[in-house]
Amino acid sequence: MKSAKRRRLEAKGWKFGTVQEFLNLSEEEAAYIELKLALSKSLQEARRKKNLTQHELARRLKSSQSRVAKMEAGDTSVSLDLLIRSLLALGASRKELSQIFS
Amino acid sequence: MKSAKRRRLEAKGWKFGTVQEFLNLSEEEAAYIELKLALSKSLQEARRKKNLTQHELARRLKSSQSRVAKMEAGDTSVSLDLLIRSLLALGASRKELSQIFS
DNA sequence: ATAAGATATGTCATTATTGATATATAGTCA
DNA sequence: TGACTATATATCAATAATGACATATCTTAT
């Protein structure tokens, strides 16, 4: 958005910065969630491709079956960190991770 | 590695599983660290491209200058999560993230 | 139907990550 | 030089993520 337009909007009382911040936050949040779901899905696919149960994968990751289930469900309690480390543990290459992101 | 070869090695007393686990862990660890450094570098580039100081970026992220410095340094106390969320906050698209990963 | 195995969900103590703060170390300009 | 701004590093209390556990629900074979 051009600054001239912005000044006009602000002159009319729009809390421009705040609205933009809100929109940016939403977009960012949406992208974050999408990313997480894409990683979750890929993790489940990778596990199934290797014919591992959640319990078996958990053992490899030194984690627990319940956490693997949460990872695959994209639970809010799971970080991108854990998802990415798990995919790496299943042998995913950086190229494969890259494809998940795109 | 083919299972026939594996069986021969095991017959000679190699603790195959353990060694493989060790190697995999190393590879995984290496990939994780590389990824983190790639994200760190991209974050710094993105910040500089926008002519923001670490302090200004920190304010956007509701974080602190010291943490931004640690992010850009790839400090062990920084998660992939925070790096990725920061890049998203700077407006990186999924495609751009994907390129960082590849 | 039910037993067995796999997956999902809820809770919680432990551990890791975080923002804040203080302070140190550049780099720059007058 | 010294004031100023940016960045780096150390520490720590608050918060978030984690593994473990219990238990529930779903699948599948008999």
Q: How would you describe what is shown here?
A:
2 copies of one chain form a homodimer. The first copy, chain A, has a domain at 37-101: Orthogonal Bundle (434 Repressor (Amino-terminal Domain)). Chain A has helices at residues 3-11, 16-49, 54-61, 65-73, 80-89, 94-101. Helices cover 76% and strands 0% of the residues of chain A. Chain A has 6 helices and no strands. Chain A starts with a helix and ends with a helix. The first copy, chain A, is an all-alpha fold and 102 residues long. The A-B interface holds A 24, 28, 31-32, 34-35, 79-81, 84-85, 88-89, 91, 93-95, 97-99, 101-102 and B 24, 28, 31-32, 34-35, 79-81, 84-85, 88-89, 91, 93-95, 97-99, 101-102. Chain A binds a DNA duplex (30 and 30 nucleotides) through helix 3 and helix 4.
CATH fold-level name of the domain at 37-101 in chain A: 434 Repressor (Amino-terminal Domain)
Strand content of chain A: under 5%
Oligomer: homodimer
Please identify the structural class of chain A as seen in this structure: mainly alpha
User: How many E strands of chain A?
Assistant: 0
> How does CATH name the architecture of the domain at 37-101 in chain A?
Orthogonal Bundle
User: How would you spell out the order of helices and strands of chain A?
Assistant: HHHHHH
Helix content of chain A: over 70%
Q: Average pLDDT across residues of chain A?
A: 86
How can the largest sheet of chain A be summarized?
none
Q: So what's the CATH class of the domain at 37-101 in chain A?
A: Mainly Alpha
